[in-house]
């Protein structure tokens, strides 16, 4: 759903950033907005966030790599790593949404499916059009 965002609805970037912790969200915002050029290093992010300690940025980048939001590769002949984004905010939202739905269904079974069906029946025509567009991606 890139492009026009109706008034009052946060962008997919904002929604994705809000799902992360404050520091992880802050770092992924600069990554997703391409304020650092991939592949990037801890010092590249640190240059944009001089209020943070080197070890804080390094630890956060490693945690984002553990969550598969960043790809991490060792730099040959150095102790440093380089990072690059694995996907876009839209991909992160899609994968997170799918995981949440799977968890709800695993936890609540048919009751969750019935709740989804009830909610679908309550969608406005505009919401139905957006849903169809998303399903066609």
Q: Describe it for me?
A:
- It is built from 7 helices and 2 strands, in the order ααααββααα.
- It is 61% helix and 7% strand.
- It has helices at residues 12-19, 22-32, 42-48, 54-66, 89-108, 110-121, 125-136, and strands at residues 70-74, 81-85.
- The model is unreliable at 1-5 (pLDDT under 50).
- The radius of gyration is 18 Å and the shape is elongated.
- It is mainly alpha-helical and 137 residues long.
- It folds into 2 domains: 12-87, Winged helix-like DNA-binding domain superfamily/Winged helix DNA-binding domain (Arc Repressor Mutant, subunit A, Orthogonal Bundle), CATH 1.10.10; 90-136.
- Helix 3 (42-48) packs across helix 4 and helix 5 (89-108) packs across helix 6.
- The chain has a two-stranded antiparallel ribbon with strand order 1-2.
């Amino acid at each position: 759903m890139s492009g026009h965002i109706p008034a009052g609805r946060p962008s997919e970037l904002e929604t994705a950033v809000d799902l992360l912790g404050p520091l992880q969200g802050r770092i992924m915002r600069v990554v997703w907005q391409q304020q650092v050029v991939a592949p990037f290093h801890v010092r590249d992010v640190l240059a944009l966030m001089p209020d943070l300690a080197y070890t804080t940025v390094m630890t956060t980048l490693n945690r984002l790599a553990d969550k598969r939001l960043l790809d991490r590769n060792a730099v040959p002949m150095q102790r440093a790593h380089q990072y690059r984004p694995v996907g876009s905010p839209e991909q992160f939202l899609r994968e997170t949404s799918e995981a949440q739905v799977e968890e709800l269904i695993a936890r609540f079974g048919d009751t969750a499916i019935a709740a989804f069906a009830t909610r679908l029946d309550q969608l406005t025509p505009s919401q139905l059009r957006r849903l169809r567009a998303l399903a066609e991606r």
